[in-house]
Amino acid sequence: MSTPARNPLPTLFTIHGGGFCLGAPRDDDEWNRAFADRYGVQVVALSYTKAPSGPFPTALHDLEALYLAVVADASIPTDNRTALLGFSAGGNLALTLSQLPTIQECTAPPRAVTSVYGCLDLSLHSGVKTGSRQYKPTLSPPRNSRKDALLDLVAVFDWSYIPYGQELRDPLLSPAYAPRSALPPYVCIVAAELDMLAHESWRMACRLANEEQAARGLSPARRLPDATSTDKNLRLVGREQPAKSKGKLETNNERFGWEERWDGSGIKWLLVPDVTHGFDNVHIRELMGGKESIRDAEAKTDAYCRVVAEWLLDVVWKT
Q1: pTM above 0.85, yes or no
Q2: Are 21 and 52 in contact (CB under 8 A)?
Q3: Which pLDDT does position 2 carry in this prediction?
Q4: What are the GO MF terms of this UniProt record (predicted)?
């Protein structure tokens, strides 16, 4: 029988990425440790079975079991201040995990979910995705590449994870199609501007805000981005030109960030400028190389983590 813990802490459950096929919680230790130390949050990193030995929905139910076990364990200092956050494939899994009835009805359901450069729409062809992001040849390498870093991996990841005949718009596979009512009260979507997955994140954030507005009898909050539109303002996420300031977020441009807040709920969008997929992971940064790009990514990692932490501490867990 476990001994009840004293002084409960707000708890952030994180889910690592790796295309549903690779990786381990250890991959995010540096991020998790820094977030816990700086913001006084208990961070619990969750693991899951990888594809192809564990195709959809194996990982989802592994995470379900772990989440429920943690919140039920009296020796772990948790209370009802909980949230989910995932990176890449983990962003997908965080959004899908939060939809499960067992998670929503447990003693400590997540008050918020955050996706960081998540793969949210598995029904969309990779050619459409690569055509919806910005390419900036004047930036320092590897950010100036004319080829997306994920392009050669997507087909293998999809083949490994998605069972034959699976409905690709199932919200538990592609959370881009999850109705607003199926998600936690607060949702934050973070994306990397130079990433083929950025547009689907942008579209989901706008759609969720519009659905919440409609449910309250209000007008749509945003025009809905469309990766196949002839209007490049809707087809392309971000901005053609590099940012004028290095190492900083864009705080005065709604293409890079906005927040809609209602009574007891909210949607937050944050696009990190001039960075590639995995920019906040020390191992990926070192693998990709480029001293200037690494310095820029480190500064922007600190900046976006501060935004997410303040949102959790001052908004989500205070309501």
Answers
A1: yes
A2: yes
A3: 56
A4: hydrolase activity
Q: How far is Cα of residue 14 from the mean position of the Cα atoms in its chain?
A: 10
C-alpha to C-alpha distance for 217 and 296, rounded to whole angstroms: 42
Q: Evaluate whether 23 touches 97 at the Cβ level (below 8 Å).
A: no
> Per residue in 228-270, pLDDT tens?
999 999 999 999 999 999 999 998 899 999 999 999 999 999 9
Phi, psi for residue 223 in degrees, rounded to 5: -70, 140
57-113 tens-digit pLDDT = 999 999 999 999 999 999 999 999 999 999 999 999 999 999 999 999 999 999 999
Distances (CA, A) of 49 to 45, 154, 245: 14, 19, 41
Tokens 């205070």 belong to 318
Task: Report the sign of the C-alpha dihedral through residues 49, 53, 57, 61, in that order.
Answer: negative
For the domain bounded by 9-318, which CATH number is listed? 3.40.50.1820
